């Protein structure tokens, strides 16, 4: 199986990593380093060009390099456009641009947990600061080859997403990502969702004594939910809706969609539906992450 961006003969494979502060750029760089990339964090854009030319013409053994570029570099805004044009047009470079993002609430929470200052202001990571950073980085985001939303991703899921994007066959996948979640309305609607589907119209397995203590991950509960005619019809409608929306979102520069499935307690119907739609979407070639928020309850 070929890599997402195949390295052509005698080319240096270059990955530019950028995105919002707190979205996972350091972890992405570590991921590439573990796979043999020469990784450099916060190198000014002007020096990246010099590094590549010295590497290519100087007989270096380096064939893969990953650079983290962001607003910590004073030259970022001034030099990034010229660097991107140089890398795109350079025949010695095989370039992939990776952009990482997350919801405002998630980024604020991550900064509060680590008690770090935001690099844009050296102060607290407020929503206003994050929105300002989004605007600054928007030109990079619009040119990115791969965009990953880390809002709902734990470390293992993030690694799986990186594996999928950078070691999968480009002919069998799309850049569009679907982040699916199940939840219980009694515990609140997740803030990071773009689209929420209420599964409480489906007959509830909770009222079947033999199914009550099971979850939607159990095959008996799954069979009960999916055998309902209304469930099967609804699945077809969701599949059709996402198939229509995905290319429209990508045309507007949005490469992911957060979809939540809710039921009363988040244990039965929502879990089955999230699992089933994840299975269908993966078969159709979408990048899919899946989380069951209430499962630990």
Structure in words:
- It contains nine helices and nine strands.
- Strand 2 (38-41), helix 2 and strand 3 form a beta-alpha-beta unit.
- The chain is an alpha/beta fold and 297 residues long.
- The chain has helices spanning 25-34, 45-57, 76-89, 104-114, 127-143, 155-167, 219-226, 229-251, 269-283, and strands at residues 12-19, 38-41, 64-68, 93-101, 146-149, 177-184, 195-198, 256-263, 287-292.
- It has two domains: 12-172, 3-Layer(aba) Sandwich (Rossmann fold); 177-292, no CATH class.
- The strands form two sheets. Strands 2-3-1-4-5 form a five-stranded parallel β-sheet, sandwiched between helices. It has a four-stranded parallel β-sheet with strand order 7-8-6-9.
- It is 42% helix and 19% strand.
- ATP binds at residues 19-26.
Brief characterization of the structure:
With 297 residues, the chain is an alpha/beta fold.
SSE order and pairing:
Elements: E1 12-19, H1 25-34, E2 38-41, H2 45-57, E3 64-68, H3 76-89, E4 93-101, H4 104-114, H5 127-143, E5 146-149, H6 155-167, E6 177-184, E7 195-198, H7 219-226, H8 229-251, E8 256-263, H9 269-283, E9 287-292
Parallel strand pairs: 1-3, 1-4, 2-3, 4-5, 6-8, 6-9, 7-8
Helix pairs in contact: 2-3
